[in-house]
Write a structure and sequence with these properties.
Blueprint: H1 9-14, H2 35-43, H3 46-51, H4 53-67, E1 72-73, E2 89-92, E3 96-99, H5 106-111, H6 117-120, H7 122-134, E4 139-144, H8 146-155, H9 163-171, H10 173-197, E5 201-205, H11 214-233, E6 239-242, H12 250-253, E7 260-262, H13 269-274, E8 280-285, H14 294-308, E9 314-318, H15 328-342
Parallel strand pairs: 1-4, 4-5, 5-6, 6-7, 7-8, 8-9
Antiparallel strand pairs: 2-3
Bound molecules: coproporphyrinogen III.
The site of coproporphyrinogen III has 23 residues, from β3.
Length: 344
Amino acid sequence: MGQKPFNDTFLKACRKEEVPYTPVWYMRQAGRYQPEYREIRKKYSFFEINENPEVCAEVTRLPVEQLGVDAAILFADIMTPLIPIGVDVDIVPSKGPVISNPIRTIDDVQRLKAIAPGTDLPFIGDTIKLLREQLSVPLIGFAGAPFTLSSYLIEGGPSKDYHKTKGFMYAHPNEWQALMDKLAEVTTAYLLYQIESGAQAVQVFDSWIGSVGADDYEKYIAPTMAKIFTELKKTGVPTIYFGSGTAHLLKIWNQLPVDVLSVDWRIDLKDVRALGINKALQGNLDPSTLLAPWDLLKEKAKNILDQGNEAPGYIFNLGHGVFPEASVSQLQQLTSFIHEYTKK
Ligand code: CP3
């Protein structure tokens, strides 16, 4: 631990600098597909892991050591910073976050408290400091974006269509803006705290933003995201913006003060660049292909690498998270292949 020379390939790719090979990490790379994680989960609940720096650091390091990826991502959930602001959230197995006090009115919005990350979530800073001593790859901090957070807050749990969320947005634009402002403050303060504690890059997860049309994104979401990334940019730490099903939003995203766009498999990377996107890119292997025979998986990865590497600033990742049925050995083989195939 810590003896290995520091591998900054991922940070270089975020900045569109020359790299010796294509860096790779996987969204949700720590989780139930790992037998070691499942063992730890027998002893602790999700939030018990999150709140115990020793265990949380161990879970964060696990995929780095097991898969040989070029970055670690802090183990937490997008719901973690919502607990201290007064959201009663439970992570229900095979379902996701469920909220017992969903937002329905402006009173519910106003009831949400401001966040003081250092006192509300000291274990996050402690985990990051510990990891910086232990890791020889960069540590990515993360948070949820206001729209995606609000979708859980308003729906009360996972949703397929986000009707309640978007209904609230259309019917109560002032209350909606108040909610976006409040969540933007949470996301910004929480990420700045992670950066002060030692996070070397940050990713904002806007997983469900693809459900919003481009005109509505411009009107109801873009100003909030511009505010968040403007604040983060002042730190000089690379920023990444992820969403799924976002082909129609990428031109707008290209105008935001963010460094890397993380895209899913519904659009080819060559078509992303053809839109005039000039930021660094991350993605975009369909996670389902982890269940494909190796030869097919390899062909898919090769095709993505060839497209991604047509311009500087490319990081290999999945188009969405690793899932419980994925196999460790398939991810190990994929990681080695990416490194070998792209080595200069
Ligand atoms: O990437 C990593 O390894 C870091 C850990 C991480 C978790 N959640 C751990 C987790 C990250 C980055 C997240 C982000 C997250 N959480 C997102 C954005 C990324 C995405 O997948 O879109 C979202 C939408 C959530 C909300 C959430 N939390 C979901 C959908 C789930 C899974 C529900 C299920 O059981 O399938 C969770 C729970 C969760 N978060 C687990 C883990 C490892 C599994 C719960 C467990 O261990 O019991």
